[in-house]
Amino acid sequence: MKKLLFQFDTDAHPSVFDTVVAYDGGADHVIGHGGLTPDNIAGLVDGCIFTRAPKDKKNTAIFIGGSNIEAGQNLLAAVQNHFFPGFQVSVMLDSNGSNTTAAAAVARIAQSTSLIGKKAVVLAGTGPVGQRAAAMMALEGAEVSITSRHIFNAEKACFAMKERFGVHLTPVEASDLDARAAAIDGAHIVFATGASGVELLKPEHWQNHPTLEVLADANATPPVGIGGTEVMDKGELRHGKIVWGAIGFGALKLALHRACIGKLFENNKQVFDAEVIFNLAKQMA
User: Fold this and answer.
1) Are 87 and 154 in contact (CB under 8 A)?
2) DSSP character for 110?
C-alpha cells in the first residue's frame, strides 16, 4: 500500500523544500494543499481518515507547514480536533522548518556544552526557528533571552512560548549592532536566527568575549548573521568558542526531517511537534 503524505500549508503555495524532503523521507506520494486554515480543513481531514481500513491508516499522514508558526499551531489543533477514536492519522508540524531546524541547532549546542544554568541569547529570535529554539533551550535548563528590533515583538514571542511550553523567556530590544553586542553581555550561548543576509554581530563583538562558549547561526546567505563565522562551521573552534554554521548543523536538520517523515508511517496515532522532534534530534546528534 502506498504511503501518502498530505502537505497542509498555511501559505498560498506548499513549500517545495518540504515536498522534496518528504519524498526523501520515504513518502511514496506527496499531495500539497496551500492556503489552509482551521475553517477550510475539514473536508481534507475527512479524506485522510475515512478512506482506509484501521490497519492501513498508518499509510496516510499529514505534514503541516507554512511560514507562520502561530498559523501552523492553530492548524494542527484544528486537524487534531477533527480526529476521533479509530479515525485519525499521524501528523507533523514544522512551519518554516521551525521544529526541525531549532531542534537540530539546539541539539548541536547541547552537544557542545551543558545548557543547565547557562545564559543563552537568541538574536532576532521572533521568527519560528528563534522562538522554538529559545523554548527548547529553556526546557533544557538555560536562562534564555530573545532579542528584536522592537520590544513589542520580543514580548509577543516570549509570551507565545510561555503559553505553549510553560517556559520563562526574557524579551530584549536590540535595534542595532551595539545594542545586540550589549545584549550578549555575560552570555554563554548565542544563536542568531535573523533574516537572510543580515549581519547581527561583528567579529569584534564575540571573538574576545570573556564568557561565550558556543555560537550558532541559522543564516546560510551571505553575509552570515555572526560575522567571522562560516556557514560550513561544524563545531569549529574559533577564538576559543565552538561555532556551528547553518550548513554545519543543517545536515542534522535534514536527517532529522527525513527521519520524522519516515516515522509518521509507523502507526496512525503519532503527533510530531517540538518535544518529540527535539527528543529525536538529541538521540541523533
Assistant:
1) no
2) H
Location of C-alpha cell 568575549:
209
In angstroms, the CA 2 to CA 115 distance is 42
Class of domain 101-249: alpha beta
Give residue 270's identity as a one-letter amino acid code: Q
Position of cell 544554568? Answer: 117
Question: Is 183 buried (19+), middle (13-18) or exposed (0-12) by CB count in 10 A?
Answer: buried
**Does residue 186 carry a pLDDT above 90?**
yes
Which cell goes with 245?
A: 554554521
At 129 the three-state DSSP class reads helix
Sign of CA dihedral 215, 221, 132, 83: negative
How are strands ordered across the β-sheet holding 4-9? 29-33, 4-9, 60-65, 90-93, 271-272
d(CA 160, CA 76): 16
Q: Which string of b and e fits 60-76 if b means at least 16 CB within 10 Å? A: bbbbbbbbbbebbbebb
Q: Would you list the domain boundaries of the chain? A: 4-97+252-284, 101-249
CA dist., res. 202 & res. 118, Å (int):
23
Architecture label for domain 4-97+252-284: 3-Layer(aba) Sandwich (3.40)
pTM: 0.96
Query: Given a cut of 90, is residue 197 above it in pLDDT?
Result: no
